[in-house]
Amino acid sequence: LWQKVINNIKLSVTPETYNLWILPIKPLTIEDNIFTLEVPNIYFSQWITSNQQKNIEQILSNSCGQQIVLKLKSQQDISDIIKKVEDTPDHEDIQASIMQKDQINPKYAFSGFVVGASNRFAHGCSEAVAKNPGKQFNPLFLYSGVGLGKTHLLNAIGNYIKQSTPKLKTLYVTCEKFVTEFIESIRFDKISFFKSKYRSLDCLLIDDIQFLLGKESSREEFFHMFNNLFNLKKQIVISSDRPPKELKGVEERLISRFEWGIIADIQPPDLETRIAILRKKAEEEKIYIPDDVILNIATQIKSNIRQLEGSLLRITAFSAFTGTPLTVDSVQKMLKDIIKTDNSKHITIENIQKAISDDFNIDIKDMKSKRRTDAVSFPRQIAMYLARTLTDEFSSNTIGEAFGGRDYATVMYACNKIKSKMDSDPYFNAKINKIIKKIQSK
Ligand code: ADP
Ligand code: MG
């Protein structure tokens, strides 16, 4: 019966619509006069309700000789989709880590990693390490700005080793988790367990090492574990948001250990690579995106691969939800917000300092001074927070420099303080957002 319906629909819609919207629908049950269809997600329900429901009911009623009503059941809740759009990979990493002991995320493989000039070296080193762990490139130190593939490469190494040499004990861990585990092991008197766990590894993949900054006791433990593994010729791979020499506040002896191995950075991808990445992701998600649309997105979103991915998810969700076809124009509208934030590189720390000094009526000089009166230090903290969120300066050291040579901890303290005040105080939140708008519109 369902076959009959879709054959009928096929005649009246374009092949694209048919493939996208009709083929994935599955007939479930027919009871009394209710015909239930299973659709992949709520966007399908929306689309059918507004485009095909009457038609389908008509066809069914005619074939059965009685009035048939359509009921749609979706496999996936809309909240799941929204979550998918909003989820940062970091969050998924955490979920994956709960599910798996080695905490390696199976979704990241070398096969899904697009190689271009910006990441060729880092990728090559990672593959070499995966094929010969503990042999040549040890430790491997990868660094880049946010969203450029460090976590992906670390997990790809892990997945490769797991497959090729399952007997090796490999562990992926974020530095944050390492620190938490360490602190808890002290609190719950499990320190020897902690130590033996890490010292028994064959390959340690540790992500976002910059988290060690300002964590002295954990740093000490990390150093010991590092030496231990290293002396046993176990593979260590480290990622960081900055090169070793900029890990100020981490002991020289640890940094020089990092420098014994090989250091590879990842730069923002060039246009060709961005296009290749979009194609690959679209293929993985099984969505069709016209070439001119891909080019359009790749031209505008430059700095961050996570944003490229996010934009892809967003346009597919949006287009499915509203039934808007994917054209250069429609996509431009859908991506307005993302593109605006991607242009944030035009916002400089000076812009922010100027805006804050106008708004709070203080002197820019004071913002860069050592003065600590509330009247100055609070606006200064806001400015540091904005500098960290609105500009490309992902290194807190640069930000600290711009505010009279303040250190990393001070900048992070300011950012956390402002962030939590924004979370808890809606008026403050509104005020900050107003300032942000003002800065962005300049
Ligand atoms: P980082 O850890 O450097 O912040 P991630 O590894 O989390 O960045 O990458 C962000 C997203 O971009 C991930 O979903 C990842 O799969 C994707 N990505 C990054 N680089 C590439 C690449 N070269 N090819 C394909 N996908 C990539
Ligand atoms: Mg990462």
UniProtKB/TrEMBL annotation:
CDD domains (UniProt xref): AAA, Bac_DnaA_C
UniProt xrefs under InterPro entries: AAA+_ATPase, Chromosome_initiator_DnaA, Chromosome_initiator_DnaA-like, DnaA_C, DnaA_dom, DnaA_N_dom, DnaA_N_sf, P-loop_NTPase
Any one Gene Ontology molecular-function term assigned to this protein's record: ATP binding
Residue ranges constituting the Chromosomal replication initiator DnaA C-terminal domain according to the UniProt record: 348-418
Source species taxonomy: Bacteria, Pseudomonadati, Elusimicrobiota, Endomicrobiia, Endomicrobiales
GO biological process: DNA replication initiation; regulation of DNA replication
Residue numbers binding ATP: G147, G149, K150, T151
Domain notes: Domain I is involved in oligomerization and binding regulators, domain II is flexibile and of varying length in different bacteria, domain III forms the AAA+ region, while domain IV binds dsDNA.
AAA+ ATPase domain: residues covered: 136-267
Protein name: Chromosomal replication initiator protein DnaA
Pfam families with a match to the protein in the record: Bac_DnaA (PF00308), Bac_DnaA_C (PF08299), DnaA_N (PF11638)
Sequence segments annotated as region (Domain III, AAA+ region): 103-319
Subcellular location per the Swiss-Prot or TrEMBL entry: Cytoplasm
Quaternary state and interactors: Oligomerizes as a right-handed, spiral filament on DNA at oriC.
Region annotation Domain IV, binds dsDNA: where it falls in the sequence: 320-442
Key words, A-Z: ATP-binding, Cytoplasm, DNA replication, DNA-binding, Lipid-binding, Nucleotide-binding
Region of interest (Domain I, interacts with DnaA modulators), residue spans: 1-88
Source organism of this protein record: Endomicrobium trichonymphae
Role description: Plays an essential role in the initiation and regulation of chromosomal replication. ATP-DnaA binds to the origin of replication (oriC) to initiate formation of the DNA replication initiation complex once per cell cycle. Binds the DnaA box (a 9 base pair repeat at the origin) and separates the double-stranded (ds)DNA. Forms a right-handed helical filament on oriC DNA; dsDNA binds to the exterior of the filament while single-stranded (ss)DNA is stabiized in the filament's interior.
Gene Ontology cellular-component annotations: cytoplasm; plasma membrane
Family (UniProt): Belongs to the DnaA family.
